[in-house]
Amino acid sequence: MTPMVRATAGVFMLFSLASFGQTIIVDSTPSHVVNTFSPLYALGTTVDRVPSNATDTFFRPDQLQQIVSAGWGMVSYRHNPELFVQAWHWNPKGKWSDPSGKGYFVGDSKPTEFIRHSYGYSLPHRGFTRNGGTELDGFSRLDDGDPKTYWKSNPYLTHPFTGEDDSLHPQWVVIDLGEKLEVNAIRIAWGAPFAKKYAIQYWTGDDAMDDQADGEWKMFEHSSVENGSGGTQTLSLGSAVSARFVRLLMTKSSETCDNHGGGDRRNCAGYAINEVFLGTKAGDVFKDLIKHSPDQKQTLTYCSSVDSWHEPSDLYVAPDRMESGDQPGLDLFYNSGITRGLPAMIPVGVLYSTPEDAAAQIAYLEKRGYPISYIEIRFLDYLKAHHRMSDFAFMSFEHYPYDGCDTPWENIYQEPELLTHIMQVWRDDGLPPDIPLFDTETNAHGGEAAVDIFGALWIADTFGGFLAAGGRGTFYYHALPYSPGHPICANSWGTYHMFMLDEKYQIRQKTSQFYAAQLITQQWVEPKDSPHQMFKATGDIKDQKGRVLVTAYAVKRPDGQWSLMLINKDKDRPHQVRVSFHDDGAPADTTFSGPVTMFTFGSAQYQWHPARKNGYADPDDAPVKSSVPGGGDAVYTLPPASLNVLRARVR
Q1: Of the CATH numbers 2.120.10.30, 3.90.190.20, 3.30.930.10, 2.60.40.1180, which one belongs to the domain with range 13-34+532-648?
Q2: 250, 337, 345, 483: which has the fewest Cβ within 10 Å?
Q3: pTM of the predicted protein model
Q4: Which one is predicted more confidently, 114 or 296?
């Protein structure tokens, strides 16, 4: 009776699978290849700013050996000073534009000393209250309450450098009042150079900075100035308007010189404002709605650009003087072994630097003989407007899809459709179809999720999804095992980690994303510079809300094996699947033949226990390797919330 029962159960299982159609179908038609990539260049990682007192530990050979064992390929060197609104001294040795030792800094292009550390310098003429994603440093000079400080725009965006009329590159400052308030007047304490021609506008939508598709900039009733004279000007704007965002748009400069003098024409180009006030005016009484203070409590302001003038005393030092940001020196980066001898993607300063400094940096790397794959600069609109898209070699972007401190499990169902949509938006915005796309920095943003099993599944889904959508290469953030806690997130110590550290910055434990990295780079693909063909793989396992529970990514490897990465995003239930390969030119579908090598990583191998900096995984085991039968009747069990790789030849 026992064999009969087992046979009946087996038939029922197969019937159930057939009735629910739980089959992963790989379109193996040779002409239907969706991407061809080399793992060493398509599956990369990043190196970013780290605490200056941790650099030596992170780059110690025993620590690097563990980092490199994750298997990531090409490295994208991230330019964090621009996130902090800082000038990057990529080479601590260089020359200041002012003989007294200040002004515009250009790093020395001649290799001399080994560059182990490099730092960012805060900009005294900044107009941003917030930095791009962090509040750790700085404040806007537009409303800091000090009439001696000032915001100044980037001089390189003016006609002496562009050769074009300044109206083609208008400069602006935006004031965010935090809520819609009645506004009918603005007071501007101009610096030098001041705007001779400008206008005042308000935003009709909800969020002028983060939702620009919903709303437009509209002129106040009396808002245009055609021949400004500088000084402190109070303008009545006409009828009061309820507005949260107000913009000052500048199109013609006085070209008078700021307090750094006329010896450098950059000091006399662009626009400068000592302080700005916004509110209501009744008769001679002006009521200011802006909070003026030299800290993050000031009213938020934004600006179109910032002058990169600075001096040695502007070297950024963190409040605790222990974790001042260190951009690991370019010599250390290339000689440590973290690049694995591969060409690296290198940035140059654009927003808060000078063209001369960028040229010097590349000259330095070339003189050292360091291999560069791409130089990351972002100015698509400019090339498009000047009919120079032929100069555009690639498009890069960053992908952090989740807001807030908590990342609910439901967010994992957004990938890969979300990523595919983002890539299509770039194309729809005019990016030519032959320009390769790189996701040069990505991870699952939000709290402890990245080090939980969620992080492993998400990384696999986004890396697989990016390549399936035709992307050229995607880069894990980040290789060095350091991630500061987000200042407003109580649970963010797990974010962006392959490892947890001890108090001395030494690796003490692997996290889920480390194991996912090894599965992706060493089991799903062959870890070598050889072309892999990717094919579309689809399944129809969905929950009651229509969300796809199992995603699949298929590659044909150089060794002749087919490799299928399967992600079961169902947190609570296992799923059993068949695998079928369909070739339009073949008489019948095929399956895996012979024994199938299977790797599984799920809750049986890894469970995260949050405890802020002391969070830990238990169990903390590597993926399980097994051998399972192939053939047409083969059924593969995917545990709940698991990452799996099936690998074998196909009949």
Answers
A1: 2.60.40.1180
A2: 337
A3: 0.92
A4: 114
